[in-house]
């Protein structure tokens, strides 16, 4: 259901929106439409079991899973959509499904985006940004003020999208939060994730460049080199590999070293009261003082 520009559908009661909210929603809709046009895709709601099965098949193809271990049960997707969740598909110029995203309401006034993915052949042309901006407009139409989701801190392109392009903020580092995963992208690696929160009213690009000691850096052999963080430094840098997914396939032992080094560095910084304030162009998390 899509609300009109001057109302929010909250439960059974429509609540009048302020002029600022109307302007914010109009801008969000425009940004979402422009992003989809640039990426040459259409982001549309999914309905019914046939849509959900098609989307589930695409998600399994993206993650390299099969029907014995699906990413998401189509019947659950039907239930999430019926309960007012976010269930969309992404189609290309030929009207072929190339991606999907599913989320559910999170108390008190937000959405948790559980899964979102795009087939590799469509992934490098801004489709992910188009999906997130569609999600933002969808949420604002329903009076939601934030979106949360998790992502693998070792995947540099996702860190850039989430922290730089979208301006999401890191809330927590979660250790092996999903337990062992059997899909082709994550198999054999602990499922550590960053939980991020995207404040929709202030969403926007957050470029950051900073200097400081590198707590984790790449060594000559491609393995991580960990150095204890100097307590007096205001800014610290934590590197991640440029392509962790390829590294997991070619050298899983080194990939696991990266997992443990980045975990130690980020958990240690957060435990000291620091914050992950951004991600720079050299594939470093930037650690600073907590706002």
Task: Give a description of the structure.
Helix content is 34%, strand content 27%. It has 291 residues and is an alpha+beta fold. The protein has a seven-stranded mixed sheet with strand order 3-4-5-6-7-9-8, with helices on both faces. Strands 11-10-12-14-13 form a five-stranded mixed sheet. β5 (97-106) and β6 (110-118) form a beta hairpin.
How do you describe this structure in short?
It contains seven helices and 14 strands. It is α+β, with helices and mostly antiparallel strands and 291 residues long.
Q: Which features would summarize this protein structure in a list?
A:
291 residues; alpha+beta; Aminopeptidase; 2 domains; seven-stranded mixed sheet; five-stranded mixed sheet; 7 helices; globular; disordered N terminus
Please specify the SSE layout and strand pairing.
Elements: E1 7-10, E2 13-16, H1 19-39, E3 42-45, H2 48-63, H3 74-82, E4 86-91, E5 97-106, E6 110-118, H4 127-141, E7 146-151, H5 156-165, E8 169-174, E9 193-199, E10 214-218, E11 224-226, E12 236-239, H6 244-250, H7 252-271, E13 274-279, E14 284-289
Parallel strand pairs: 6-7, 10-12
Antiparallel strand pairs: 1-2, 3-4, 4-5, 5-6, 7-9, 8-9, 10-11, 12-14, 13-14
User: From the helix content, strand content and strand pairing, which structural class follows?
Assistant: alpha+beta
In the CATH hierarchy, the architecture of the largest domain is: 3-Layer(aba) Sandwich
Uncertain residue segments:
1-16
Q: Would you report the number of β strands?
A: 14
Global geometry = globular
- In CATH terms, the superfamily of the largest domain is Gcn5-related N-acetyltransferase (GNAT)
Instruction: Note the gap between the termini.
Output: 37 Å
Q: In the CATH hierarchy, what is the class of the largest domain? A: Alpha Beta
Instruction: Specify the biggest β-sheet.
Output: 7 strands, mixed
The number of helical elements comes to: 7
Strand content: 25-35%
The helix fraction, in percent, is 25-40%
User: How do the strands line up in the largest sheet?
Assistant: 3-4-5-6-7-9-8
Order of H and E elements = EEHEHHEEEHEHEEEEEHHEE
Arithmetic mean pLDDT: 89
């Amino acid at each position: 259901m899509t609300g009109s520009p001057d109302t929010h559908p909250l439960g059974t009661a429509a609540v009048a929106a302020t002029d600022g909210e109307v302007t914010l929603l109009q801008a969000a809709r425009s940004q979402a439409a422009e992003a989809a046009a640039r990426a040459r895709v259409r982001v549309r709601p999914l309905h019914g079991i046939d849509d959900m099965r098609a989307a589930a098949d695409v998600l399994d193809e993206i993650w390299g899973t099969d029907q014995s271990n699906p990413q998401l049960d189509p019947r659950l997707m039907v239930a999430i959509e019926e309960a007012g969740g976010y269930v969309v598909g992404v189609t290309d110029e030929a009207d072929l499904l190339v991606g999907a995203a599913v989320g559910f309401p999170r108390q008190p006034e937000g959405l948790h985006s559980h899964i979102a993915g795009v087939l590799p052949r469509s992934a490098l042309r801004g489709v992910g940004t188009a999906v997130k901006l569609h999600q933002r407009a969808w949420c604002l139409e329903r009076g939601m003020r934030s979106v949360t989701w998790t992502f693998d801190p070792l995947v540099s392109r996702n860190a850039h999208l989430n922290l730089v392009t979208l301006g999401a903020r890191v809330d927590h580092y979660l250790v092996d939060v999903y337990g062992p995963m059997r899909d082709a992208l994550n198999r054999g690696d602990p499922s550590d994730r960053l939980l991020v929160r995207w404040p929709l009213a202030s969403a926007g690009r957050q470029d950051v460049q900073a200097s400081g000691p590198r707590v984790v850096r790449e060594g000559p052999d491609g393995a991580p080199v960990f150095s204890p963080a100097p307590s007096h430094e205001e800014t610290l840098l934590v590197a991640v590999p440029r392509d962790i997914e390829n590294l997991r396939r070619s050298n899983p032992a080194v990939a696991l070293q990266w997992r443990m080094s980045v975990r130690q560095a980020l958990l240690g910084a957060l435990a000291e009261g620091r914050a992950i304030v951004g991600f720079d162009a050299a594939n470093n998390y930037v650690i600073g003082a907590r706002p």
